[in-house]
Amino acid sequence: MRISIISTAFTLLVLAAGCGDDSGDGGDPFGSTVPRRERINNLKQVGLGMQMHHDTYRRLPPPGELALGTDGKPLLSWRVWILPYIEKGNLFNQFKMDEPWDSDHNKKLLDQMPEIYKTTNDTNKTTLMTFVGNGALFDGGKGPKFSEVVDGTRNTIMVVEAGADKAVYWTKPEDLPFDPQNPKAALGDVGPEFLAAFADGRARAIKSNISDDDLKAIITKKGGEIPPEL
């Protein structure tokens, strides 16, 4: 599968998304060498990559743990599927998409993690993940459509930066199980705040002391809750 992306268009989209976010250089709860502002900008690019995938396929990529191969093993993360849309088409073309992330071929690419996935000091693990299941945006074997987001893309988290204790190999199809009764549990140790990209492309910091009800409201895609003022 060969996909070619015009980098100029992508750059313009990233620049257009530069307003309306919270990208200050505040403290880093992870002790990472990656500055907070850079991580927020990276999240915006990831969000735009997701949107461009949706523009192409009319769906977001599937949550990897539910996209199974013929042998029943999970294949590759959504982080691999959006590579062509974050200017990494050549890397995407090196993957065998019908093989698991840890096949003999695919695991050789672990050390080529794109910089925008770097959230800790680890060079082949990331904490950029999606919430999955129980009414979250990613809930089911197929990638969701934006038309399914009844609560509004502005009010629904698409990608979140979890705690360093939740880091996974970037190609591994593993995300955060959403528990409506305890929505913070999956995030791990995020410190005083965590970063999130919403389905409309915005990226911002969210205080960790957000109430469970308010966090649930911005995770579910059609729960009908009143979104909090962030």
Rounded mean pLDDT is 87
**Quick one: how many beta strands?**
8
Domain count, please report it. 1
The largest β sheet comes out as:
4 strands, antiparallel
H and E string: HHHHEEEEEEEEH
By DSSP (H or I, 4+ residues per run), the number of helices equals 5
Strand content is: 5-15%
Rg estimate, integer Å: 16 Å
Major β-sheet strand ordering: 2-4-7-8
| Global shape | globular
Contiguous low-pLDDT stretches (5 residues minimum) are 1-20
Query: How would you classify the helix and strand content by structural class?
Result: alpha+beta
Give the termini separation: 40 Å
**What is the helical fraction, as a range of percent?**
10-25%
Structure overview:
This protein is an alpha+beta fold and 230 residues long. It has one domain (7-219). 21% of the residues lie in helices and 11% in strands. It is built from five helices and eight strands; from the N terminus they run ααααββββββββα. The chain has helices at 7-16, 36-57, 78-81, 89-92, 212-219; strands at residues 125-126, 128-129, 131-132, 157-161, 168-169, 176-177, 193-198, 203-207. The strands form three sheets. The protein has a four-stranded antiparallel β-sheet with strand order 2-4-7-8. A two-stranded antiparallel ribbon has the order 1-5. A two-stranded parallel sheet has the order 3-6. β7 and β8 form a beta hairpin. The longest helix is centred in the first third of the chain and has 22 residues, at 36-57. The termini are far apart. Mean pLDDT is 87; it is low at 1-20.
